[in-house]
Each structure stands twice: as structure tokens, then as C-alpha cells.
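Record type: monomer structure entry
Structure origin: computed from sequence
Chain ID: A
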Amino acid sequence: MATAQRDYYEVLGVPRDADGKRVKDAFRELALKYHPDRNKSPDAEERFKEVAEAYAVLSDPKKRAEYDARGFAGVAGFTPEDLFAGIDFGDIFGGVGFDSGFGLGGGLFDRLFRPRRAGPAPGRNLEVELALPLESILRGGEETVRYTRPVACPRCGGSRAEPGTKPRRCATCNGTGRKTITRGERQGAASIRFQQISVCPDCGGRGTIIEKPCRECRGEGRLEREESLKVVIPAGAEEGLALRIRAHGLPSDDAAGPPGDLFVVVTSVPDPRFVRSGADLWHTESVSVADAVLGTELRVPTLNGALEVTVPPGVQPGAVLRLRGKGLPRYGGQGRGDINLRIEVQVPEHTTAEERELYERLRALTQRGERERRRP
């Protein structure tokens, strides 16, 4: 069943009278969310293509007028090159820590909008976690990722056979890697044929037999190797942001196939001072009953050093004081988040005789004040 194409305004979530800035801002937000080098969801690539196409039409006054007048028929004749020519994607994505790769002739443009060539299947993708302190996420920049992955054996090139020799095609399965047993049955006037397919017992499903295995990898075709590479972390990187590094994943099962991709998943190291919530940070401070009543000064940690904060008199338990702009940069946006300072009032579990006497006097004064306030 064919899928109906969605209205371009609906795709970007903007009204039909949206100005150019609103269209651009909506595209930027959605493109950062669904960029296939960052988002590993199965539908991320298609969603990115959809929002890119919508932006390409609605950002161009002539194409937009044709679309408004005649719908999809008004822009049906445009090739991808026609749609995206003249759009400065570097300006749109600038400052967020990655290359859009969307210029005509760029890797991402070719991958999404030009037909793919048939060839050996690539290897599977690999995922590693990069845990960073909040200070590193604050400033962004280059970080080193270290991980272990299997790579094609340099001696045999992944063929599993000692150089100078070649794998022999398995005679049992004729190189298919499968063993097929066919049998027929008659049920009344009908003749039914069954096929049972299983992994070839002689070659283990490989289709070839190695008579002289490579002595470096012992016939496995792969070796475990520790690797390290540099990645650029955008300032304010979201929790769980996945950075795609091409061709650094697992090798292909086909010796001629390219390796898969590496996904570096950015997380923040637990910090005893803060709880992260997007670009905002939460911090809790306890004050005494007296300080809650009379007010006080607190020295509060931030990612740029400690800060003096005034707690107003009469602050209530659970009150939140907001330190604007002291959190993390807003990923893909402008400015910084806040530090939310939650105030807890610490009630003493044990008191001295003198403290108890003072609390008794305070209670008496409070009760007297309440009675006076109730008098007509």
C-alpha cells in the first residue's frame, strides 16, 4: 500500500503564513533531531529526508508559491539537485559541532537522495559509550574514544586462508552454505513437495572450506584490535546523543564488504552536586529553621565556580531559586539552561535544653500572634 505524502507545512509543524525565519528554525530543530548520523532510530533517515525536502520547498519563494498554488504537482518536476541548490546548510547547522555533509556531492546528500549502488553487505554497526563530566559537556570539544573491535586479519585480508592459498568451494552445498533436502508426498489427488533447509554440516554455512588456515588469525579471518579515535563533542550535547563515525564498526561477513559504522553515545558522568535535566541542572541545599525564617547567604557550586546566593527571609521548604544561565548550553539552540536551587529546611532531631526553651518561647509567641490576628 502506498503511503500518502504529508503536507510540507505539517511536516515542519508551521502554519501556512509562517515567515522564512520560522520555517528555518523549525527545520533546524527537526533536522538536528532526526539527522541520521546522530539518531539511530530505524525511521530517522526517512524523517530527515522528509523535513529536508519540506524545507527546500518552503524556504524558496518561487517553489513555495508553486506549492501553495498547485500542491505537490507544482514541485513534482524538481530533481534533488534543483531542490537543494543554493541552500547554505552550513549556515543552518553552523555552531552545533558537526558537519551537515549536505552539500551537493556531499556524502549525506548522495546517501539520501541518489540511488545506492549494489554491492557486498556492510558489517554491523558498533556502539560505545563515552561518559563525560558536566564540565566537558559545558565546553564541548575534542575527546578520545578507546574501544576494541574485530578487524579483518592483515595477513589474509579476511579470507581466513594462508596467503598463497585459496578457500575451496564446499562440495556438499556447492558453495551455498545450505543443505537442502526435498521430499514429496501425495495427499489424495494432490502432490505436495517439501523442502527442508539447514546449515551445511561440512562448511558450517560459510560455503567454503579452508584447507590451510591463516596462521595469524587461525582461520577466523578477524583479529581483535584496540583502537582510539578523536571525536568532536558539541557543547551541551544531549544525554544519549549518538555520534556516527563511518566505517569504524564491525567488519563485513563478506571479505569485499565495507565495515559498519561506530556510534559513540554521549552520556554525562553522575555528579554529586547536580542532577541533569536537559540543559538545566538541579542542586539541593539545606538550611536551618532559623535561616529559613530570617534569610541567609549560601555559597552554591556552578560549573564555572561557586556563587553567592541570597536566600530570602521566610523561604518555604521545597522552594526553588533559579540561577538563570548557569546551566549547560542548549543543544542546537541559543543560550544556556539554568541551575535550579531547591531549598530544604533542616529540622533538628535533637535539641539542647537551652534550644528547647527557646523553641517553647517561640511557639508561645507564635500562638499569641495568631490569637491577636484573629481578634475582630
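Annotation 1: Residues 29 and 362 are 56 Å apart (CA to CA).
Annotation 2: The chain has a mean pLDDT of 84.
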